Amino acid sequence: MMEPQENTNDDSVPSPAPPPLPRERIPVQKGSVCSRSYFMVVMVFFHVYVLNVIALLLYVHYNSGSEAGSSSRDFSSRSNGHKVAEPLDPQPADPGFTRRMHLPRIEGIRVGHVQKVSLVPGKMHEMKTLSLKPLLFEIPHFLSEEECSVVVRLAQLKGLMESQVMVPEGQEELNQQLNLSPEEIFNLLDLNQDGQLQPHEILTHSRVRDGIWLTPENLREIYAGLKADHDGNGLLSLEEFGQLSSDAFQRFLLQRGVKRSQLVRNSRHTWLYQGQGAHQVLRDLRNRVIRLTRLPPSLVELSEPLQVVRYEQGGHYHAHHDSGPVYPETTCTHTRLAANTTSPFQTSCRYITVLFYLNTVEEGGETTFPVADNRTYEEVSLIQNDVDLLDTRKHCDKGNLRVKPTKGTAVFWYNYLSDGRGWVGEQDEYSLHGGCVVTRGTKWVANNWINVDPDYHRQARYQQLVSQQESQEQQLEKNPEQNTDTHQDL
Ligand code: OGA
Ligand code: CA
Ligand code: FE2
């Protein structure tokens, strides 16, 4: 019994096993015991090794299998945009929304990556990734020349208004409401806690005073005019700060007179409705945005109207976020109706910005993304050595990314990250952007903002509310006799 076993074992031992000992060397009986234990150890290692290899192979197989699966899905969706684009929903509000609320996000892959998208029948567009932070894309020829002209003419017909009116609004109210002492304010502003206020500490906190954009030079002028910086070192001590009255600061600014170029934004704009009954070009544009973003149509349809903006020569828009951060108390402007609470924190909840260039600007007027794909985002680092990266009149050339306005091109980006569960997450601070000063000619752009409430239930309630209202209106249209009272009233 033993022998065959030993033999079999000997046979099965792989090459590292000692060669069979010559028979005549019988005294090495001890050695055979030794070789058995040696053989056992080798076998254990061998099995562990084989199992490891098998496990590794299985892991690699399944991992690459799922990746291959998803990337092949992506490729097929890219090569034929029909698959990824949501079918055009003729209903304005989607009753199935609550069941399948999910926000697809387009993959950027890498900067410079170009994917084909199908936005209009019989035509393919190319969509290029411009940055990953924020997730930003450019689509040339999104609008035809004719469509651009129609949008501009419609805006002109409607009439444009000043984007920023120069009405001073008391900024003091918040400080007064919060009841902060000068020391407390000083400590909040003194970011590096060195007991002095550097110009960038003041500007980081409030670049904008009554709608006026402050630069480091402005600040120096104000200090000089109000004799605020006694020792002339360009910094404010707590004592100097305490003596600088906020009213005096404000009066000084307004007395100097405010030019349009000193405002946050120097442009005119109007809003164009894109729903039923709107001009075909505007409706087409909205449908194209639905296909581009792959979002539920109802979400896009319930978003803000199209904003058309005109910058004259010398016009600009300093860098900003289109939508604010979300705190637990934050409410969205668009779902206010469905929210049961009122909150002092309200923002426009613009999940996506789609920006259309309606003309090619002769010179300047680029859209700048000063911190796109930056390694880090730090608010304090935005002003360094008198260079304010948010200032699009002076420092556009120092930002990380600029898009040249070309007629018919669209760019779009996500102002919020994903929450990892298919819904809106935190604000993407890297989405900071602005309009560089137009140095020659005029600039026409249009914004399509897609509003999504980061609170999933609030968005769902809002959509339900709107669809109920719409079906009631439709009912009334079908049976006008039900509404005789109203008619009589009218
Ligand atoms: C805006 C905006 C950029 C541009 O209108 O919100 O950021 O290039 N515009 O005009
Ligand atoms: Ca300081
Ligand atoms: Fe913007």
What labels describe this entry?
single chain, 490 residues, alpha+beta, Jelly Rolls, nine-stranded antiparallel sheet, 26 strands, 20% strand, disordered C terminus, binds N-oxalylglycine, binds fe (ii) ion, EF-hand-dom_pair
- N-to-C CA distance: 110 Å
Catalogue the unreliable spans.
1-31, 62-94, 484-490
- The tally of domains stands at 2
Task: Report the count of strand segments.
Answer: 26
Write up this protein.
Residues 302-452 form the Fe2OG dioxygenase domain. Homodimer. Residues 70-79, 465-474 have a biased composition (Low complexity). This protein has 490 residues and is an alpha+beta fold. The protein has two domains: 95-101 and 108-162 and 267-476, Sandwich (Jelly Rolls), CATH 2.60.120.620; 178-262, Recoverin, domain 1 (Orthogonal Bundle), CATH 1.10.238. It has helices at residues 2-12, 29-79, 81-84, 145-158, 172-178, 182-189, 199-205, 216-226, 238-243, 246-255, 280-293, 297-301, 456-478, 484-489; strands at 114-120, 123-131, 136-139, 161-162, 196-197, 208-209, 212-213, 236-237, 265-266, 268-272, 306-311, 316-320, 331-332, 346-347, 350-357, 363-364, 367-369, 383-384, 387-388, 401-403, 410-414, 416-418, 424-427, 433-435, 438-440, 443-451. Strand 2 and strand 3 form a beta hairpin. The longest helix is centred in the first third of the chain and has 51 residues, at 29-79. The model is unreliable at 1-31, 62-94 and 484-490 (pLDDT under 50). Bound molecules: N-oxalylglycine (OGA), calcium ion (CA) and fe (ii) ion (FE2).
